[in-house]
Amino acid sequence: MIPAMRAAILAVGSELLGTDRLDTNSLRLTEVLEGHGVELVGKAVVGDGEAAIAAEVRRMAALADLVLVTGGLGPTADDVTREAVAEALGRGLRHDPEILAGIEARFRRYGLRMPAVNRRQAQVLDGAVLMANPRGTAPGLRLDLGGDRAVFLFPGVPVELEAMIASDLVPWLAARSAGRGRERAVLKVASLPESTVEERIAPAYGEFGRERISILARPGEILLQFWAEGTAEERRRSLAAVARRLRDLVGPAVFTGRLDEDLAGAVGEALRARGETLATAESCTGGWLGQRITAVPGSSAWFQGGVVSYADRVKEELLGVPAELLAAHGAVSEPVARAMACGVRRRLGATWGLAVTGIAGPAGGSADKPVGTVHLALAGPGEGDEAVSHRGVRFPGDRERVRWMSTQLALEMLRRRLLGLAATEDGERPAAALAPGSAG
Amino acid sequence: MIPAMRAAILAVGSELLGTDRLDTNSLRLTEVLEGHGVELVGKAVVGDGEAAIAAEVRRMAALADLVLVTGGLGPTADDVTREAVAEALGRGLRHDPEILAGIEARFRRYGLRMPAVNRRQAQVLDGAVLMANPRGTAPGLRLDLGGDRAVFLFPGVPVELEAMIASDLVPWLAARSAGRGRERAVLKVASLPESTVEERIAPAYGEFGRERISILARPGEILLQFWAEGTAEERRRSLAAVARRLRDLVGPAVFTGRLDEDLAGAVGEALRARGETLATAESCTGGWLGQRITAVPGSSAWFQGGVVSYADRVKEELLGVPAELLAAHGAVSEPVARAMACGVRRRLGATWGLAVTGIAGPAGGSADKPVGTVHLALAGPGEGDEAVSHRGVRFPGDRERVRWMSTQLALEMLRRRLLGLAATEDGERPAAALAPGSAG
After folding, report:
1. How far apart are the C-alpha atoms of A19 and A16, rounded to whole Å?
2. Residues B427, B430, B433, CA angle at the centre, nearest 5°?
3. What is the pTM of this model?
4. Which of B287, B293, B363 is the closest to A290 by Cβ?
């Protein structure tokens, strides 16, 4: 944690001003700054014009202690970051024979002659400290402006930037933070609307500070984020305390504390712990449920496979859904969902059979069963031969969202049953995304 | 097309300086500017500080003719864009009773009393033109700076911004462009490496201008983009001419000219035109192929369904793959891929059966069959009973990439067979992503 240090990030490159290429370098640098508790006060993208770059560097140097510039260090005529920064900060530029020798040597290693244009990359700002570039030709430059103020010039190529973050930026920040930093932890919540989560965690705002906890709503999932500052040990203890309290407040709708784990991963862990297996029967999701499950490495230990029963004939022949059931209720109905779940469970010999059938749109809806109507069923061990549970819902949104929400709710149904939880929670309101179909 | 008009975009909001929330408004505004041939010279994000916003607006107004600002028009204390812009441009701020009445009326319509904080949203910069906000409380503001120079202040909420783009920004730009604009068209190419596409289209650079055509490589796909300027009619004719020439040069590896169509959509169109159907058998892709196919609206007309045969027992029981074949060659092998394709085709009664089996990693690889080894097979009508084609490949990359590339190559195998093309092209080099498994 570097108290009161402020930073700004500038990405140079006309190609970053279109709609196809995003400036991802600034996100990576933001992450590094956050890890050291440095406040980001602004970021910008400018094209390859020298005057525009110079104006922006000047503004940022006035605004922030630390200015991180990426891009424009290449060999071609439109790479003018060095010149622009020299102008902005009133520094001279000189040619460095040692750097030139290094660039020439790099070309020789690949059996090439250095093109004349690359000579430009050997230019150095007066007083600059060089940052080696093991993955490219242009060295980075660091200019100390006195006190803890500095300007870093990095290449725009992500792998080259990454090397210099590790070799130069992180040590520079660490020397100023004395092991203190800022760290984030997360909890993920399924099946509850944002307002319910907000209500439940309200006491934690008072206990830990409003600014230390945030809620981010994503389709079918809420991300709770919280931060701690201090030494590594202080951060660890503080984050554990907040996580414990939030889990208490939210309850078992929290399905993971790992940012890289989704609901399929959480379901997989529960199945693996119980030595049980899963099979899926998908209609409207068309394989998406299977795709999410098999995205989890090692899922072959608990996932048997599934049937994508898009056509009714496939429901009959591969899942054993009776033709009369399809005729009487239609493919999108509770009885058919139940028959699909039981069918796939038996045919594939799995502990659990999970089925989804619905109308994803844009066509295919009716007054009776509008677009967004989805029936889900879960067959598994229970009294007698097997126990089947069902949920009928209606999701708002377009085809992609209806399909996504269907996979999310199917996985959550299974997770709740595996953990012995009630199928729904009080906080799930009929007006929310997971509204019962009958309410539609 | 507005000759020589330069624009800059500023997004205001501390929440946009983290790593979780991106400034997507600037991409949307960039698109609108591109459509009118306005050059974007810079974009930036600043937090909610008045001085920082003012400094950036001043810099942008010096750099650009048109400055588009989003965010910071809300009712709370940290919404200071109005004040900052007043300061930057030396304008006064006054309270507008008419706007206030409008905001109060909006609250009344929802049966609410206007909170006192919302009074701030009725402040107007001297000389500003109001932009109505049908979807929120804060009106937008336009300040004319003389000539064709202006500053627009938009709300940061995307739906509110969208309404003002349509009602105010586009008409303002259109009045200055006299129907002239800039437009993009695309072609998508499958199964060829970037360098081969680059080689093939080289003549078009000379004929139409290097700066009018660009190549963007994405996993398993190349996006060719090209631009035209002028009136609607001029653009249409020019884009059609470039598209025709590029299709000639690249050949049938071009699978679509629609930005919103992927390979699954192109395959679907070909199947629909022939009145044929498809069934899939997936192992390592786990349903992703089915997910992509069913993401195409109306795919039920040509997609029967599929089997996700993750476990070997499912390959035997649902697809009829002989146990001896699995024992002799392993699940990831040419004979098993062929048996899966034939099995799913017969069981589901489809014209075509498409099968994928492979090792996606991170575990499961061996010296003989390293991670990335994938076998694909396509069964369909042919001499005698049926004809089955096969491809064995090895993809580089992680689990997600191997799986994605498998779905892409499977769809391309089918597309080429449907169009009567050779299974592979000369330009596909063994060293590229689609290397034969034997070369690994």
Report:
1. 8
2. 85
3. 0.84
4. B287
B113-127: b (≥16 Cβ within 10 Å) or e: ebeeebebbbbbbee
Contact assignment for A363 to B298 by CB distance below 8 Å: yes
Lookup: tokens for A423 = 């199928």
Say if residues B415 and B266 touch (Cβ distance below 8 Å): yes
B295–A contact, CB cutoff 8 A:
yes
Q: Which residues contact A260 (CB under 8 A, 6 or more apart)?
A: none
Structure tokens at B90: 């030396």
Residue among B30, B34, B290 whose CB faces A308 most closely:
B290
Reading chain A (440 residues) residue by residue, the pLDDT tens digits are 566 799 999 999 988 998 777 788 999 999 999 888 898 999 999 988 899 999 999 999 998 999 999 999 988 788 899 999 999 999 999 998 988 998 888 888 888 888 888 888 888 999 999 999 988 888 999 999 998 999 999 999 998 999 999 999 999 999 998 878 888 899 999 978 888 898 999 999 999 998 889 888 888 899 999 999 888 899 999 999 999 999 999 999 999 999 999 999 999 999 999 999 999 999 999 999 999 999 999 999 999 999 999 999 999 999 999 999 999 999 999 999 999 999 999 999 999 999 999 999 999 999 999 999 999 999 999 877 889 999 999 999 899 999 999 999 999 999 999 999 988 876 664 333 444 433 32
H helix or E strand, kind and range, residue A83:
helix A81-89
